[in-house]
Structures are given as C-alpha cells and as structure tokens.
Task: inverse folding
C-alpha cells in the first residue's frame, strides 16, 4: 500500500503545482485587500480551503476513464481512499509550508515566531481538508461529474475545520500556548477521524459494482 | 394517499386559523410572534425529512434497491424546501423581534450549512441522473448527517467568538400552555404534509423509472 501511495504521490505533481500557485496568488490578493495582522488566521484558512477545494478535484483524474480497472484491483477499496487521502494530505502540508514565508512577510512575523505552536492546527486542519477533498473528489469521479462541483460539495462540510482552525490559529498568534486551544484541536481531531473512518467505508460502497 | 393529502390540507387550514385567530397574542413580541406557528413546524419537518434522507441513503448504499433511492431523493427535495421555509420565516421573525435579519447563533449556522449540503445533493442528482448519481448522492446524504454534530459544535464555538447584540434571546421565551395546542396542530399539519408530498414524489419516481426502463430497455 505504501508503494501505491508513493506512486500516487508522484503523479500529484499536477495537484501540487496548481494548488501551490493558487495559494500564492490568494495570499497576495487577500493581503492586498486587507493586510491587517488580525486578518491573518482567516486569510490563511480561506486560502487553504479554497486552494484545496479547487485543486483536489484532480485526485481521481488519472482514473477517471478507467474506474472499472480500479474496481477490479485486488485492493480493499477503502485502502484506495486511504492512500489517496494520505497523498493529498502530504500535498496540502507541502503547500502550507511554502505559504508560511509569504504569509509571514505580508501579514505578521508572528506566523514565523509561533510556527512550532502552529504545527498542530495546520496539520490537523490540513488533514480535514485532504480527507474531504478526497472523498468528494472520488464521488464526483465515480458519478462522472465535473471537478468544478468539488467546492460546492466540500466547503459546507468543512466549516467545522475552518472555524476551529481559524480560532486556534488566532489564539496562538496572539501568544496563547497550545494547551489553551485544546478544545479546538479536539474538534479538528474528531472531524479528521470521523471523516477518515466513514470515508473508508463509504468508498467501498461507492465503488462497488 | 389521496386521503393523506386531504388530511394534510385540513390540518394546514385548521392550523393556520388557530395560529392567526385563536392563539393568544404574545405580550412582549406582539403579532410577529405568530410566525412561530410556521417556523417551528418547518424546522421539525425539515429535520425529519433530512434524517429520512440519511437513513434511506444508507439503506440504498447497503441494499442497492432503487426504492430506497426514490425515498432519499424525495425526502432531500422536501428537506431543502422546509429548510428554506425555516430560514426565511426565522429571518422574517428575527427582524422585528431581534432587530436583525441574521445572527451567527449555533442553530442558525447549522441550519444554513445543512441547506447547502442538501442542495449539493440535489445538484448531483440533477447533473448525474441514474444509478451512478444515486450512489454519489447517497454518500452526500449520509456524510451530511454525520457531519451535523460537528457543524453544531463548531457553530457554538463561533458564537462564543463573535460579539452578540445586547438585546438578544435566540432561545425565546418558553411556550405557554395556551399556545401549545395551536403549535401542536401546526407541527402535525406540517409532518402530515411532508408524508403526503413524499408519497406523491416517490410514486412519481417509481412511475418515471418504469417508463425509462420501458423506453430504453435495461437501465
């Protein structure tokens, strides 16, 4: 499964590039609209959410025309979701890493100085975005629908991630310790686990023929 | 089924009369408070419909019998209808009573997000007809309901972050006994209406399914 994961990841150069560029553009546009440091948490997560919603639709692009082959593969279909979601999580994390210098430069250097504390919210939030994007991406591929529908399906459902992540990021940038945002991190963690588990089961039902 | 429709009609008429004429006028809010007799039944019917969508979706994913899909689809449509009514009636009620059309109260936020999730369900059904779309939509239906507690949890979090208007009581006053009977009748009316419309819709889908099958051969 690890091999498949790596193989899938290699192919995601396409997703990584488009998500990365879109992220950079959004940082710049949002900073131009309002460079107030208190806007930084919201700007960060709006950027990540929209970049993910627009780019993760490509997750199943290679398989789109050969879904039958995917169904016949000697793999538990839940594993297909898991490996794609994991690969997407890595992509989202990579994009977050690249965006941190730019956010820090355009909004507030606290993003750099508080980075160790920000790691947990960034990763847990990113995982939620990746999981949702992979599930709905697969759903759209299976139904032969346009990838452009991904934001419509994904964004309402990830509202908990956005609210919790923005609140946690804001508190940490404000100087509060990670312990202070435990309940936010709990929300993020619960979302990630719930989504990942149910997606593994639902993927099985989705791709079954 | 026709009986159910007639019953629904009678109950809605009775409920409306009770709400507008018979029920007492509330002391603090005045006449606008009567919107409660539409708003509360709407939200109850909406949640009933959406719960039904989720259950029928799960059954469809498990059993693959189209009957479950017809039920899920009809329930989702009616759910969106009743959520829309809930949001609009709540907003109209809020303006004179709270002084605002909207607020980020946990329940309002959750209901709004639910609207988007189930509109997404309908969009997928509309653009991917047939069994493939049915399966995709079923997943949306199930995930939507699973996400509900998390949405509500985060909405409560949001509420504590945002400043609230000072003259604000989203919970509203407790319902006095003289209003309970009209409210109960209206709730029953909406639920019977939901059932009647749902049956109508499911029958429509069934007939349509048979028609398509006859015209195109195997589905």
Result:
């Amino acid at each position: 499964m690890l091999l498949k994961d790596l193989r899938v990841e290699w192919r995601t150069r396409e997703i990584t590039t488009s998500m990365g560029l879109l992220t950079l553009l959004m940082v710049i546009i949002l900073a131009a609209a309002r460079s107030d440091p208190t806007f930084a948490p919201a700007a960060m997560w709006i950027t990540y959410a929209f970049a993910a919603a627009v780019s993760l639709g490509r997750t199943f692009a290679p398989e789109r025309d050969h879904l039958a082959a995917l169904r016949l593969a000697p793999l538990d279909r839940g594993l297909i979701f898991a490996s794609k979601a994991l690969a997407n999580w890595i992509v989202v994390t990579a994009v977050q890493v690249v965006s941190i210098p730019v956010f820090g430069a355009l909004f507030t250097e606290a993003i750099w100085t508080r980075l160790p504390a920000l790691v947990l919210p960034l990763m847990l939030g990113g995982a939620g975005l990746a999981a949702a994007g992979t599930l709905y991406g697969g759903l759209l591929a299976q139904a032969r629908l346009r990838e452009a529908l991904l934001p419509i399906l994904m964004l309402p459902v990830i509202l908990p991630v956005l609210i919790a992540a923005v609140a946690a990021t804001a508190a940490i940038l404000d100087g509060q310790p990670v312990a202070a945002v435990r309940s936010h991190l709990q929300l993020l963690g619960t979302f990630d686990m719930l989504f990942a588990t149910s997606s593994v089961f639902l993927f099985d039902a989705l791709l079954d023929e | 089924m026709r009986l159910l429709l007639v019953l629904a009609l009678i109950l809605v008429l009775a409920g409306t009369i009770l709400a507008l004429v018979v029920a007492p006028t509330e002391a603090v809010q005045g006449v606008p408070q009567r919107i409660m007799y539409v708003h509360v039944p709407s939200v109850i019917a909406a949640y009933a419909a959406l719960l039904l969508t989720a259950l029928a979706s799960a059954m469809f994913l498990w059993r693959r019998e189209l009957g479950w899909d017809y039920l899920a689809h009809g329930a989702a449509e009616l759910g969106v209808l009743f959520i829309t009514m809930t949001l609009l009636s709540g907003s109209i009620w809020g303006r004179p009573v709270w002084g605002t059309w909207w607020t980020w109260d946990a329940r309002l936020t959750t209901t709004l997000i639910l609207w988007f999730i189930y509109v997404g369900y309908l969009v997928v059904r509309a653009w991917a007809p047939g069994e493939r779309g049915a399966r995709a939509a079923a997943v949306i239906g199930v995930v939507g309901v699973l996400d509900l507690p998390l949405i509500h949890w985060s909405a409560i979090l949001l509420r504590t972050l945002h400043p609230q208007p000072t003259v604000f009581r989203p919970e509203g006053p407790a319902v006095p006994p003289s209003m309970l009977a009209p409210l109960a009748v209206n709730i029953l009316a909406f639920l019977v209406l939901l059932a009647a419309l749902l049956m109508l819709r499911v029958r429509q889908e069934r007939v349509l399914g048979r028609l398509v099958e006859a015209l195109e051969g195997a589905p």
Notes: The mean pLDDT of chain B is 86. Residues 46 and 79 of chain B are 5 Å apart (CA to CA). The radius of gyration of chain B is 19 Å.
